[in-house]
Structure formats: structure tokens, C-alpha cells
Amino acid sequence: MTLLADLLHTVFERRHRPGRLHRDARPLKDLTAALIGTKGEISGQAIACELLDRYARWSDAEKLGFFRHLADDMDVTPEAVRAALDGYVLHRSKASYRDFLTAAEAPRQELIRRLNQVPGATRRLVQMRADLLRLGRGDDALMAVDLDFRHLFASWFNRGFLVLRRISWESPALLLEKIHAYEAVHAIESWDDLRRRLQPEDRRCFAFFHPAMADEPLIFVEVALTVGVPGSIQALLADDAVPLDVERADTAVFYSISNCQPGLAGISFGNSLIKQVAADLAVEFAGLRSFVTLSPIPGLMRWLAAQGIPADPADDIRMRQLAAHYLTEARRADGMPLDPVARFHLGNGARIEAVHARADISARGLRQSGGVMVNYRYDLARLAANHETFATERHVATSSGIRALSSAASAMLAADGAR
User: What span, in angstroms and rounded, lies between the C-alpha atoms of 183 and 186?
Assistant: First the structure.
């Protein structure tokens, strides 16, 4: 897979980088207009290089000025859109449809495309979007610019371009350092901790890569092969955990999934990653019967506090009941589950299988979820049906045990209210 990634990287990025004897000193607006208007490939690459190099040197204030230029000066022209749409309605043809598409697309989209013709530009544009999300939060005009970035990235980073690679203890040190740094769910405390997650035969780590960023993981998942479904992250990651003979394993546990690139926020990789890894593991290990997660419940304690519901992490049964109730009943205004991790896995077609008290007794686990963790089950035969009912009806697939816990919580809360 490494050879394939290198080959694809060459296909995507091996282009001529134009030499420049001097820097282009034209003002920003002149440069962006020139890039969009240029007809020559070499001259276009030279201008794109100048813009990207300038951006790399800018302060946050200068970057914000650039984004405002994109928002104000490179937006669609409503009058042109109306005229083009009227023309298409009156006479539907290839030409009138092309005119409408041209009018309806903000010029900044073409600017971003042309910036991307420079070798290495994709990585720099991903960082540019991370800056936009950071600097433009709460500004509707700048978030409209982000829609254009997101639209383009959704095409550039679609599943067909992604390469799945296993990360092992023998992977290059630079890549291991990135896994260490990007882990977002259960912090990797040391190199020994990282080794315990990668080296034993009962542990796996897989990541998606893009040919234009061949040495940068986009997202990765850590997996443990176990006998039965685990109910404690501390036990799973214990320093003295004895590696399992993988021939005995009947369960694959996805216990951490981390997005690595802030500039790709909202571009969905996780659903494809888990499903692909589950399918590959099922082929590699014929004895695997269950594919589950061991997931945090990050919004539980905040929701309980907002509802005025007391929670004691030491009261195991009450915490399990409240967690089941939260996962199945707490909804946003649009009917989707309130918990972001639940939305992700249920949207992938998983079902809520079980909840465990005192499953994450770290400071973060206690603060966010009172120590409770949840298993989402990925039944490969049911994923499509579960996804469809969740997407169309907001139906939350659950085990009978979760339904019983949620019902018990409803009765308990009703009784507490009656008092």
C-alpha cells in the first residue's frame, strides 16, 4: 500500500514548479484577478506560488483581510445569477445551462482550484481552511467562503482518492510522531504507550491518506482484538495487559478514532474508515463475530446538569440508566441525537449495544460522561437498514438491554419529579 500511495502521490503532485527570478509585487487584488484570468499554465503557477508564499508569511490580521477579500470581492453577482436563470428557464440548452453554472459559482472557487495547481498546494489549502474556520467563526460572510472550500474539498477528498494503510510499530518515525500528536480521544502518554497500541498482534491501527498529502494521515482508528466485548478503557490500555492470541479473538473493538486535519472538518471519512477496516478484519480473522466500539459520551454530564438531574459516578446502575436515556431520548431541534458521537455512529448504521459505568475513570472521562462509556455495534448485515431508518425517520437502533435501561430511567425521573 505504501508503494501505491507513493505512485499516486507522484501522479497528483509531480508537476513543473516554475522558477521565479523575482517576486511579483502586485497588490493582492491584482494578483487574484490575474490568476483567475490567466490562460498560460506556467504563468498561472507562478502567480499561484506567489499568493501561497505570501499567505504563509502573513499574520492572522493579514490572513483575515485575504478572507474578507474572497468574501466581498469574489462572491457571486445576484443580478447575473437571476439573468442566467431566466435565460435557462426561457430556453433550456447546453449554452444556457453553462451560463447559469458560471454565474452561480463564486469566482473564489476558481481561485482555489488554480491555487491547487502548484505542487504541495493541497496541504497548504487544507491549512488555509483551518485558518478560515479559526478566524472566521461567527462571521456569516466568511462562513459562506468556507462553504466553497468545503464543496471543493468534498470532491478532492472523496473516498475514491483515499488510500487505507495500516500503521505499525515499524512505520516511519515521522508518521509515528504524528499518530502520537493527533490522538484525540485517549491521550498517548509515552512512546511505550504508543508501542502497546501498535506492536502486539492483538492491536491494529489504520489510517486514510490522500495522494496529495501522502505523509499526512487524515483520520485513523485504533483497534483491539478481544474475547468478548470490553467495558473499560483503562483495562484495555493497561500497562500490564497480556497480548491475546489473535486466533482466539471473536471481537474487534474500535476504541479511538481521531481526525487529524482541522482544515478537513466536516469532510466525512470516519464512516468509510470503520466499515472498510471491519470488512478487512473479517477477511483476515475468520473467528471475528462482533465489531463494536468503546466510545465516550462527551455530552452526558453537561446535559444532566442542564436538566437539573443529579449524577453520581459511583452509582453504577443509575449512571447506566441515565446514559441510556440520554443516548436514546435527548434530541436536537431537528430530531437528531444530542450527543455528537452517537450521531456519528448511528449515522453509519451502528446500533447502541451496551453502556458501562466506571469505564473511563480518567479526569476527562469523569468530567464529560461521569465515567460511562458505550458500545456501538457494527452489524455488517444491518448497517444499510439501520442507516436508512436513522436518516429518514431519526430512528435510534438499540439493543433490548439499552431499551430496558432507558425505560427504567424514565420511570425513575418521573418518580423523582413527582416528589
Answer: 7
- pTM for the model stands at 0.87
Locate 331 and state its grid cell. 434530541
Query: Could you give the domains of the chain?
Result: 26-156 (1.20.140.90), 161-418 (3.40.630.150)
Q: What is the DSSP letter of 210?
A: B
Distance CA 396, CA 336 (A): 9
**Confidence band (pLDDT; 50, 70, 90) for 17?**
very low
Percent of the chain whose predicted confidence (pLDDT) is above 90: 89
What DSSP string describes 129-189?
A: HHHHHHHSTT-HHHHHHHHHHHHHHHHHT-GGG-EEEE--TTS-HHHHHHHHHH--SS---
What are 17's three cell numbers?
A: 514548479
Given the DSSP bridges, would you call strands 290-293 and 251-259 parallel, antiparallel or unpaired? parallel
Beta strand 219-226 with 251-259 is: antiparallel
Cell of 128: 488555509
Fill in the amino acid letter for 166: R
